[in-house]
Write a structure and sequence with these properties.
Layout: E1 2-9, E2 12-19, H1 21-38, H2 51-57, H3 59-81, E3 86-96, E4 103-111, E5 124-128, H4 134-147, E6 150-154, E7 163-172, E8 175-176, H5 177-180, H6 185-188, E9 189-196, E10 218-224, E11 238-252, H7 258-262, H8 269-302, H9 310-330, H10 335-340, H11 342-370, H12 376-389, H13 394-403, H14 407-425, E12 428-432
Parallel strand pairs: 5-12
Antiparallel strand pairs: 1-2, 2-4, 3-4, 6-11, 7-8, 7-9, 7-11, 10-11
Helix pairs in contact: 1-3, 4-8, 8-14, 9-11, 11-14, 12-14
Amino acid sequence: MNISVENLAPCKKLVRVELDVTAVNTAFDAVTKDYQKQANLPGFRPGKAPRDMVVKKYDAEIKDEAKRKLIGDAYRKAIDEQKLSVVGYPDIEEVQFGRGQALQFTATVETAPEFQLPEYKGLPATVEAKSVTDADVTKALDLLRGQQATFNTEARALANGDVAVVNYTGTCEGKAITELAPTAKGLTEQKNFWIETAEGSFIPGFAAQLIGAKAGDKRTVSVDFPADFVTPQLQGKKGVYEVELVEVKEKVLPELNDEFAKKYGAENVEKLTIGVRTDLENELKHSRAKSVRAQTIKALMDKVTFDLPETAVANETRNVVYDLVRQNTQRGMARELIETQKDEIYSIAATNAKERVKLAFLVGKIAAQEKIQATQEDVVKRAQQLAMMYQMPFDQFIKDLQKRDGVNELYQQVMHEKVLALIESSAAITEAAPTK
């Protein structure tokens, strides 16, 4: 077998393969014998039909089978001999094939990038030197109390901490907001809408302009929609609202006592406080680990540059686009609005896809160097976690996974996680003063 390899582009090669006539004839003979054993022709017992009759009857099938087997075997042998790390499937072209003649074909393949693995242990990460304070615990307990709050209607002016019940209509650039953002009906008009006067409630700056008003008062409220506002068509623009204050409601928090604690499964206030502190400490620990991982991944990615296979990036881009559209749909964004943002979504997806593909190659190389693998026990544990997350019976989850050939993907996920955990655990961490 003759093999030659030509570089077409980074991560793309053209493999030319030629098999001599002897190999082709041998393949034809082997396939023909298989058909003879199985052929069932009139007048002959199964497997006893003459060779020439079998060839005449099944000529096209024999040729297709011989071609498939020869090209498949030759391609795999060529890849192994040339030590090519192929990504995805080959594009087979220029096939010359027939009985009594040499086989020739080309295979255009994409290969894994070649790069020197940078140092991946001891990568820098900075975290805030924070701990859970008594003030943090008190704030968390107040949030729990807020979940059980009652609201009393008051015949007085609206004050900070109250809830304003309002009717309003909004415009932007002199037009009803729905003219600019057809799906934003709730931002255009509402009746008996509750707005907390706490900072960050509803549209920034809206509630503050109602302070001092009493039930029945009407006010004109001007707002600046933030640059990252949830409705893209309004981002960075100014809005004007005609508001009528219907009611002033005072938010009354329940007393922090043992009876309150029992509503959250604690025996008493002391046990509830301990539980809240533990939750906050776990949350802080998780947040710190998440930050360290993100920083070490970025540091690793910044250490090396290499070309990426186009097909791998294109496939991952499609996956990211699908995820973004699904997430926006779940958040209630209308498909019409998603369609208007398709260019932006694709641009974000393409960038994310390149980062994901690059990280995948880095992780794969680290796993090989560290001899990190996912065991069957690891994968079963991960599958159990996912089944619980999706609220599916474990057996059903495994069947669905097998149907879409997702078992290997699960092995890759577990291996990926092990490598990132190694990088994170070996990070060189610097503690910085907490930001205010």
